[in-house]
Design a protein that fits this description.
The chain is globular, with a radius of gyration of 21 Å. 44% of the residues are buried. It has 411 residues and is an alpha+beta fold. Helix 1 packs across helix 3 and helix 6 crosses helix 7. The protein has a six-stranded mixed sheet, with helices on both faces. The chain has a six-stranded mixed sheet with strand order 9-16-15-12-10-11, sandwiched between helices. The chain has a two-stranded antiparallel sheet with strand order 1-8. 33% of the residues lie in helices and 25% in strands. It has eleven helices and 16 strands.
Length: 411
């Protein structure tokens, strides 16, 4: 941790470049890896697949970039050669075990290692396991990256996609007055400290010495998936609201459920972090029918989306950026600061304010399943078990089948 003579990373001194602002909470987060395992039917030449992955890297500015720290500022800097990794594994390697091994190794994001891709061959299928740092993009980003890989594999030309940053596209109104006042207070009270790359590596190593991931998943049949879709339609709620209600019913102690929300526009398929988030507080009422609970949950989600869809992101952009770093270091006992501790509670990073369950639903994946002679059999989406959530569920649907993945951090 260093101290600077300037107000590092404050809202009043930003530079005009690809600065990390709305994504700042991901900068020093030690458990912020998105995993997507894609299963391709049949045996695919791993070297041809590796070449396709390389083409996909070159087609996205995000995977051709590294993260730079400069006295409290952090930004993306484009490189001439991608430093993201590709590895061809032994046949029938367990992709979940690969996640467990690799989460303990810090991503060298300062050198451009924002994605690790593992090609797992076998006789009846080929798996591509993509493990990506959240700074390279959100869940949908990785799905579009899969589309790039499959297109390149089928000799379909790729279109270069520049990095898209949210800060300039966020609405300027609707933020609560109390949030603005608190942000001004923080800007006045926060000191000049900032962190360096060694702090990032030290905290990551320290964190993963005592914890590990727990990942489980289940792929539903076409019939089971269709039943959920039809039931939601009959009730008059979305599939996502239906799934949220299912978990609230199954786990009566649950109250606070977080829901990531895509805010992509104009069919943007770039690898970028274009996700906001909301949460609802709802206690499942066992005295009422499931359908009644589902309608209530749906109405609550719809109302919050209408008024508060980007509220957290708007708030974060007003805070000193290095204070956001301090929130993470405070969360993992690497920084003792009263303002950071207070802000952590407001943002939901403290033990008492965390979301009890996050549900990230990519819906029906908006990419083709077939590419020339190649066909995607399944896509398993495992969102990161970030600091403000105790557990998280990832949902993805392709070929009419829904896959639900559970991710938890165990100590």
């Amino acid at each position: 941790m260093k101290k600077s003579a300037i107000r590092s990373g404050t809202s009043g001194g930003r530079r005009q470049r690809n600065e990390i602002v709305t994504e700042r909470s991901n900068l020093f987060e030690p458990n912020v890896y998105i995993t997507v395992c894609t299963e391709i039917a049949g045996k695919v030449c791993p070297h041809k697949l590796s070449a396709a992955v390389k083409q996909a890297f070159e087609a996205n500015e995000a995977t051709m970039s590294k993260i730079v720290l400069d006295h409290g500022f952090a930004y993306y800097e484009k490189m001439s050669v991608s430093n993201c990794k590709i590895e061809i594994t032994n046949e029938n390697k367990n992709w979940i075990e690969l996640v467990y091994q690799n989460e303990k190794i810090p991503f060298a994001i300062d050198k451009g290692e924002l994605v690790r891709v593992f090609i797992i061959p076998s006789e009846d299928k080929t798996q591509i396991m993509i493990m990506a740092h959240h700074l390279v993009g959100d869940g949908k980003s990785i799905i579009y990256f899969v589309k790039d890989i499959m297109s390149a594999l089928s000799d379909i030309p790729l279109t270069y996609k520049p990095l898209t940053l949210l800060e300039k596209n966020l609405p300027q109104n609707g933020l609560l007055v109390a949030a603005k006042i608190y942000a001004c207070y923080c800007d006045h009270k926060w000191d000049n400290r900032f962190w360096v790359w060694q702090d990032y590596y030290d905290m990551h190593t320290k964190y993963w010495k005592t914890v590990s991931s727990d990942i489980k998943y289940k792929t539903l049949s076409v019939e089971e998936t269709q039943k959920i879709i039809e039931s939601a339609k009959q009730i008059g709620c979305s599939v996502n609201s239906y799934i949220v209600t299912l978990f609230l019913k199954k786990h009566p102690h649950l109250r606070k459920v977080g829901i990531p929300v895509s805010i992509r526009q104009n069919k943007n398929e770039a690898m970028s972090n274009l996700t906001s988030g909301i949460f609802i507080n709802y206690k499942y009422d066992s005295k009422k029918k499931f359908a009644q609970n589902a309608v209530r949950v749906h109405k609550r989600i719809t109302r919050i989306l209408k008024h508060y869809k980007t509220l957290v992101l708007q708030f974060v952009t007003l805070l000193p950026m290095t204070l956001m770093d301090a929130v993470l270091f405070n969360t993992y006992n690497s920084c003792c600061d009263r303002l950071a501790e207070k802000t952590a509670k407001i943002l939901g990073y403290s033990e008492n304010t965390k979301i009890e369950l996050g549900i990230s639903n990519l819906m029906v994946l908006d990419i083709p399943a077939s590419y020339g002679n190649y066909k995607i059999k399944n896509v398993i989406f495992v969102p990161p078990a970030v600091s403000y959530s105790h557990n998280i569920i990832g949902v993805s649907t392709i070929n009419g089948r829904m896959t639900i993945a559970y991710h938890n951090i165990r100590k």
